[in-house]
Amino acid sequence: MTPLRLKEKVIESTFFLSSSLAIFINLAIIAILTFESYGFFHKVSPIDFFTDTQWTPFFYDKHYGILSLFAGTFLTTVIALAVALPVGLISAIYLSEYSHSRFRVSVKPMLEMIAAVPTVVYGYFALLFVTPLLKNIIPGLASFNSLSAGIVMGIMIIPLIASLSEDAIHAVPLMLREGAFALGATRLQVVRRVLLPAAFSGIAASVILGVSRAIGETMIVAIAAGLQPRFTLNPLVPIETVTSYIVQVSQGDAAAGTIEFQTIFVAGASLFVMTFILNTISYGLRKRYMQAYV
Amino acid sequence: MQKIIEASNLRVSFGKTQVLKNVSMTLHKDKITAIIGPSGCGKSTFLRCLNRMNDMYDNFKLEGAISFKGDNVYAKETDVIEMRRRIGMVFQKPNPFPSSIYENVAFGLRIQNINDKKILDEVVERSLKKAALWDEVKDRLGNSALRLSGGQQQRLCIARTIAVESEVILFDEPCSALDPTSTRKIEDLILELKKHYTIIIVTHNMHQAKRISDFTGFFHLGELVEFGETKKIFEDAKEKLTRDYVRGDFG
Ligand SMILES: Nc1ncnc2c1ncn2[C@@H]1O[C@H](COP(=O)(O)OP(=O)(O)O)[C@@H](O)[C@H]1O
Ligand SMILES: [Mg+2]
């Protein structure tokens, strides 16, 4: 083998090894999640896990009902979406169809830059700014609550939904717009009757990705929503989400092998399954709209 | 012969590029006018001035005047929406909306808030019949328009335009994406439509212009070199440039 061939071989194997390493680490994570969850379900029946409405692994009277964590995750996610979907979609429509192309070109990268703000900053923004502000309007609001956490999470997701939906709307061929204009459609009618239906799968993909971000978001809820598992849909009281539970317990001293330790992994596994399903759907939808118009 | 559209001294530019230079043309009612000329000479731009489709470009500038039945198309008080309904357009590539055959034809009515099923059913049927598509699709009006063949899609786009009761139909190379059989069908259809509609068609195909049009305008580098009866343009043009072009010596 010539030195040159040898060098090439070494480079090739390095590349191969690093990409295999990434895949291997992911598989290892899945394996650990599965293993520890398996251990957990040896001690707790899955029926209790999915039907009990209390989550008290550290109390004397132990309950392992994941529903109360799910409720927190669900509540914050819905609030976030209620903020992010309308604002994100309207921004996307404005950018794609109404704004000057120069404006669009300069705003798009800015949107993507906002995504680089550390979420801990958003968390304190929710706790120290939004909650006091809301307390003026809603007297009964607790200092830790899902409402301000959800709203701020929504603000965080707006750029994601705006940017991806804008891509989807902009990708609708010009000739469809022209066809509608030529029939006497107004700009708003073109948006509503042609662009939104045509870009539907792309917009849906962006929303699902946003939901997936909201479900996985940790810092904001850990800081601003409280750490009290509660089976409720009341946005004014402290709650706990799946993610913030994991943070909370990881900071403590649950010993390996104990059931407390295993709850981290079973919560993580539920989270993984949820976001994995959502991301898969989102990926499928995006592929569909890319195929439709390329 | 009654004139329906009159363009006088049109000068059109996009930003700094001038695309049409002093074009004047009179279009007659219920006649077919063909517009021919090499690529990039401004045929589409001219056509799109007639129904104000160029308005969507920020850098579009027009001087001169266009009148439609005596009304100034570019006057401030002109209702552009109404204007576009009366002067319909069929594009180079078939562009049905990604919805059903029925909804494609009903689109122009729905945006006028006409949603009465009886009216829509009637208009859809009548328009598809006029576009010579009814027999092929009457059993599957709910199917996606995107599943039709290219020629059928183009006839659907014609039906969609007819449905809003347009008086003029602008065709911008409507057959350039179609096979010869579909092309022939569209040509026959255009000849049939001539009874009730004024038609202006941009075409690259000399045979098509010769076969279906009553008048022909020859554009070159943004100027209308010659305009007259089709027979005259093709057999006895005044300008040498026109004679060379229709013989196929360039372009
Ligand atoms: N929106 C536009 N912006 C800038 N230039 C344009 C625009 N539309 C057309 N043009 C230019 O105008 C000229 C004529 O175009 P067009 O009318 O499409 O020609 P044709 O249809 O005869 O091929 C071309 O040089 C084209 O590049
Ligand atoms: Mg053209």
Summarize the helices and strands and which ones pair or pack.
The complex is a heterodimer of chains A (294) and B (251).
Chain A: H1 3-43, H2 46-51, H3 67-98, H4 101-114, H5 119-137, H6 146-170, H7 174-182, H8 187-198, H9 200-216, H10 219-224, H11 242-251, H12 259-293
Helix pairs in contact in A: 1-12, 3-6, 3-9, 4-6, 5-6, 6-9, 7-8, 9-12, 11-12
Chain B: E1 3-14, E2 17-28, E3 32-36, H1 43-50, E4 60-68, E5 71-72, H2 80-86, E6 87-90, H3 101-110, H4 117-130, H5 134-137, H6 150-163, E7 168-172, H7 180-193, E8 198-202, H8 206-212, E9 215-220, E10 223-229, H9 230-235, H10 240-246
Parallel strand pairs in B: 3-8, 3-9, 6-7, 7-8
Antiparallel strand pairs in B: 1-2, 1-4, 4-5, 9-10
The complex binds adenosine-5'-diphosphate and magnesium ion.
Overview of this protein structure:
The complex is a heterodimer of chains A (294) and B (251). With 294 residues, chain A is mainly alpha-helical. Chain A contains 12 helices and no strands. Chain A has 2 domains: 3-42; 67-293, Orthogonal Bundle (MetI-like fold), CATH 1.10.3720.10. Chain A has helices at residues 3-43, 46-51, 67-98, 101-114, 119-137, 146-170, 174-182, 187-198, 200-216, 219-224, 242-251, 259-293. In chain A, α1 (3-43) packs across α12 (259-293) and α11 (242-251) packs across α12 (259-293). The longest helix of chain A has 41 residues, at 3-43. The model of chain A has no long low-confidence stretch (mean pLDDT 92). By secondary structure, chain B is α/β, with parallel strands linked by helices. Chain B is 36% helix and 27% strand. In chain B, the strands form 2 sheets. Chain B has a 6-stranded mixed sheet, sandwiched between helices. A 4-stranded antiparallel sheet of chain B has the order 2-1-4-5, covered by helices on one side. In chain B, α3 packs parallel to α6 (150-163) and α4 crosses α6. The model of chain B has no long low-confidence stretch (mean pLDDT 95). Chain A binds chain B through residues 100, 173, 175-176, 178-186, 189, 193-194, 197-198, 292, and chain B through 51, 53, 56, 58, 81-82, 84-85, 88-89, 91, 93, 95-99, 107-108, 110-112, 157, 160-161, 164. Bound molecules: adenosine-5'-diphosphate and magnesium ion.
